[in-house]
Amino acid sequence: MNKSVVISGGSQGIGKALVKKFLAEQFTVYTCSRNQSKLDALAAELGSDRLHTFAADLSQKNQVLDFAAWVLKHTNQVDVLVNNTGVFIPGQIQNEAEDLLEKTIETNLYSAYHLTRALLPTFQAKKAGHIFSICSTASITAYTLGGSYCISKFALLGFSKVLREELKNQGIKVTAILPGATLTPSWDGVELPESRFIPADDVAQTIWSAYQMSPSTVLEEILIRPQLGDIDL
């Protein structure tokens, strides 16, 4: 039976690399993005009838639930969920914009919380599956310009840890991915060589490798850094 994966934020960066990887492994892929034109470009580039796209802003709970409902109209079996949607706006607690914390938490944390809850019954029904959340080195390291981003990513790692404890006796795996600086549009404009960054494809391959583990084994947390170390924010 063909397997399926749900990847939030799949039009660029790590999400796009994941879409390509799971399509190559013969999965049916359901993904979303706020930008319909980027989804159209993705579909045109990849040209696969196993790729299904949906325009949604996952910082909005109602749109998270709309995306989940759309997925469940297409399939009653989700084998893998990757909570990838995220936003990074540099700043400091002492001087960042007044509403930045709320916007960042809604995108980086609440989207994962609500999407996971909406799709979880499909995993529980078959007592199997794997849920990944794209955290960050900012989930374990406080950066000077991390501000609300660090707060949200610390919280997302906590979400993954709690979910792991809740689901480990139900046959459902939970893994937190903690990548350092990855070559994605978030770093556009930064004057550093590509060699200073993690390729997005390496993150996708890591997730695939973690998924391939036997049913009795789970990689709970995976920390990935550039060979030369973190890039200071």
From TrEMBL:
Coiled coil: none
Native source species: Aquirufa regiilacus
Transmembrane segments: none
Similarity comment: Belongs to the short-chain dehydrogenases/reductases (SDR) family.
Keyword Heme: no
Record CDD domains: SDR_c (cd05233)
A Pfam entry, by short name: adh_short
InterPro entries (alphabetical): NAD(P)-bd_dom_sf, Sc_DH/Rdtase_CS, SDR_fam
Protein name in the entry: SDR family oxidoreductase
